[in-house]
Design brief:
The chain has 2 domains: 163 residues, Periplasmic binding protein-like II (D-Maltodextrin-Binding Protein, domain 2, 3-Layer(aba) Sandwich); 89 residues, 3-Layer(aba) Sandwich (D-Maltodextrin-Binding Protein, domain 2). The chain is an alpha/beta fold and 281 residues long. The strands form 2 sheets. Strands 1, 2, 3, 4, 5 and 11 form a 6-stranded mixed beta sheet that branches. The two termini are 18 Å apart. α1 packs across α9 and α8 crosses α9.
Length: 281
């Protein structure tokens, strides 16, 4: 059988969970057998924008964005960041009820993020103020916005900074569906062909498995991309979003993804989606 060869630009964010997953590929800890990787490291909303143009061969992107580009990309069953009864949070400077935020200004990390979709499903009426995710807590503190939609490590440190949780959208999604909430996924461009799609997916899965087996060294690599995050915080964040679901999202993960897509369609937030294709491993 001929060796399957391809040059793959793999887009992922500098967040600890993404960097952790790609460690073994970046440092050639595993065999890639004819697949050559170059890494494109950008924030998730930038990667979402690139996905609309089908720019990268492999990319991390928000599940919400994936629904809109599923005609161009197939979903890898590995690499997903899934919140199992936890996820993005809305926080404020005081303890308030979610209903009090109707019509109010809420800082969000992007209109194509899954966090934004989940918030729109939970609270349809609010004024979204888009800003970089790492500026959201500052905007809440200054009073620029009434509340903030927090992702990444902010989910772990908000309380120590004096903020109050209004709602955990992962908890809410689980209460409603009894399913985990897929937030970020990895996808591969369909025009690469079946062989390259499957081989690239297998390599990513092996990279994730390597990182989980060599946790300390992969974590030290991931922290280099962080924003001054403490090791313990990064470790906790990685544990939340790189786990068995990430090696294989499985039946529950896929059901959660499809439930999220249905909710988006039923609430008028997603129109004419293509059928989701899962890469078989």
């Amino acid at each position: 059988m001929a060796l399957v060869k391809a040059k793959i630009r793999a887009g992922h964010s500098p967040d600890a969970d993404d960097a952790f997953m790609f460690y073994a590929i970046a440092h050639e800890k595993i065999r890639t057998d004819g697949i050559t990787f170059s890494h494109v490291i950008e924030d998730i909303e930038s990667l979402n924008q690139r996905a609309f143009k089908a720019d990268l061969e492999v990319t991390a992107l928000s599940a919400f964005t994936f629904f809109q580009v599923a005609d161009k990309y197939a979903l890898m069953p590995c690499g997903a960041s899934i919140g199992d009864n936890y996820g993005p949070m809305v926080v404020a400077t005081t303890s308030i009820y979610p209903k009090e935020l109707e019509g109010k200004k809420i800082a969000v990390p992007g209109l194509h993020t899954t966090a934004y979709l989940a918030l729109k499903l939970f609270l349809p009426d609010f004024k979204a103020v888009v800003m970089p995710f790492d500026k959201i807590l500052e905007a809440v503190s200054s009073g620029e916005v009434d509340a903030g939609l927090v992702i990444h490590e902010g989910q772990l440190i908000y309380k120590s900074l004096g903020f109050h949780k209004v709602v955990d959208l992962g908890e809410w999604f689980y209460e409603v569906t009894k399913l985990p909430l897929p937030l970020g996924i990895d996808a591969v461009r369909k025009n690469l062909g079946r062989d390259v799609m499957r081989k690239t997916t297998r390599i990513l899965r092996e990279s994730i498995e390597y990182a989980l087996k060599h946790r300390d060294e992969a974590l030290m690599y991931a922290i280099k991309f962080g924003r001054g995050v403490e090791v313990d915080t990064a470790d906790q964040f990685v544990a939340m979003y790189v786990n068995d679901h990430t090696v294989d999202m499985g039946r529950k993960g896929k059901e959660g993804l499809l439930a999220l897509q249905r909710a988006a369609i039923e609430n008028g937030l997603l129109k004419d989606p293509a059928k989701i294709e899962f890469v078989s491993m």
